[in-house]
Specification:
Number of helices: 8
Largest sheet: 10 strands, mixed
Strand content: 25-35%
Helix content: 10-25%
Shape: globular
Oligomer: single chain
């Protein structure tokens, strides 16, 4: 299904979300820390964070004397390079009797903090790679991460080394942060360009966003420090940038897919909708086009958003090695389609109206499978449109993609192009250029449903 968040009727100048200042003198919590060094003594970890240019430094102190509690304190002072060097020397001198101060690792942010049976652990990014840039903001992926035990080994009990604790650590380590996760220190990559341009008053990274996968893991640190400068907000999905030249004019194109952390799961194991209206495999895709001749700070940018998700009904499939196409089971019949209604209400809150539903599942099958979903989904949309105001009606477009694609003369791209053109005529798209070229507000959505999600 598809919905689009797309233009503005009045020109809006890019906000600090898009073009921020990195000046700690104005507000110590308004800038970002991008480079860190972790040191340890017997009693504490010291995480020294600096801005990109290493002109300003902050200190995070993590207590190591508690076997099962997390005690973190942030030094409010902003240090200069010489001052931080002097501070580290004093810490080393003060701890000489117990082993001094030892360098542990070069770090690029805290991805989370977790506790199993006893000890707390820090999940640290130790190697990063820049994969793109939006309006001057670098976008990174993770190349390496490290799990650090916080309590000193001398105060850990046997529980910290038990088989169960080690099994939990092994399970956590099996999560590969180097695949399909990306983040930015200064740009809220979990939000669309339009949202970032218009959210003038918000401060810090919006961790409660549905596309931030480590929101819970970073909560303990963010709540204790009352800011987001020590942690990174990880988005799961896909990020790709290319440059195009059209008639001698250069453009930068970014494609960003963001996968929701709600009701997430693998194919076949997660299908349909839950009681809260969250659908399986909810993925928001944004395309950003930048006029590179004008430069990244001139405001000539456009963005269009669509959402893909599982059909918002209660259905499932039981995976089997013997059946490549497991039967589709409609698990529950709800005459009022409450969960479906909650789903579309959530989309309206996220993106606005109208919502355009593009349904790609089959209409003809020898053995009815997707056909059942198509019929029930059409019934659900028809029912909801009876109780929605006319201007908020769901625009339902059905196209049997598989049947059409089998034809030798089929031009799939031409049909999809016509559908996209119709959708954009209804929703508009976000454009930050001259206001006279704008047609309408872009706060609407296209939603796509297929039987494969």
């Amino acid at each position: 299904m598809a919905k689009s968040e797309n233009s503005k009727s009045n020109f809006i100048h890019p906000s600090a979300k898009v073009h921020p200042s990195n000046d700690p003198d104005s507000d110590p919590n308004s800038y970002s820390l991008e480079k860190f060094r972790l040191y340890e003594t017997r009693a504490r970890f010291y995480l020294i964070g600096s801005d990109r240019n290493k002109r300003s430094f902050r200190v995070l102190k993590i207590d190591r004397s508690e076997p099962s509690d997390l005690n973190i304190s942030e030094d409010p002072v902003v240090y200069s390079p010489q001052e931080i060097k002097s501070l580290l020397q004093r810490i080393a001198e003060g701890n000489r009797a117990t082993g001094g101060l030892t360098f542990v690792a070069k770090v690029f942010g805290i991805a989370g903090c977790i506790k199993f049976l006893e000890s707390y652990y820090l999940i640290l990014v130790t190697k990063r790679r820049q994969i793109g840039c939006i309006c001057g903001h670098a976008i990174y992926s993770i190349d390496e991460s490290q799990l650090i035990t916080i309590p000193h080994v001398t105060i850990q009990s046997d529980v910290a080394h038990s088989k169960t604790e080690l099994r939990y650590k092994k399970l956590l380590s099996s999560v590969d942060l180097t695949k399909d996760f990306f983040y930015s220190y200064t740009y809220p990559i979990m939000q669309s360009l339009q949202k970032n341009v218009t959210s003038m008053s918000e401060e810090g990274m919006p961790y409660e966003n549905i596309f931030v996968w480590n929101a819970f893991l970073t909560l303990a640190i963010r709540s204790r420090c009352n800011n987001t400068i020590w942690t990174i907000a990880l988005v799961h999905g896909h990020f790709r940038q290319i440059r195009l030249s059209i008639f001698g004019r250069d453009f930068g194109v970014s494609l960003i897919s963001r996968r929701s952390r709600h009701f997430a799961g693998t194919r076949y194991l997660k299908r349909g909708v839950n009681d809260r209206g969250r659908v399986a495999n909810d993925v928001e895709t944004e395309q950003i086009v930048l006029d590179e001749e004008a430069g990244s700070c001139k405001g000539k940018m456009s963005s269009v958003v669509q959402m893909r998700g599982s059909i918002p009904l209660f259905w499932s499939q039981e995976a089997s090695r013997l059946s490549p196409k497991p039967d589709i089971i409609l698990q529950r019949y709800d005459p009022t389609y409450e969960a479906t209604r909650l789903h579309f209400e959530d989309l309206a809150k996220r993106y606005g109206n109208p919502i355009i539903v593009l349904n790609l599942i089959k209409t003809v099958e020898k053995r009815p499978r997707e056909m059942m979903l198509r019929r029930e989904f059409a019934n659900a949309v028809g029912y909801l449109n009876q109780i929605l105001s006319e201007e908020n009606h769901l625009k339902f477009i059905h196209w049997d993609f598989h049947k059409f694609a089998k034809s030798k003369s089929a031009n799939v791209l031409a049909v999809l192009g016509a559908v996209a053109s119709e959708a954009l005529d209804l929703t508009g798209f976000y454009y930050s250029g001259k206001p006279i070229t704008l047609k309408r507000r872009a706060a609407q959505l296209s939603r796509t449903s297929t039987g494969s999600c």
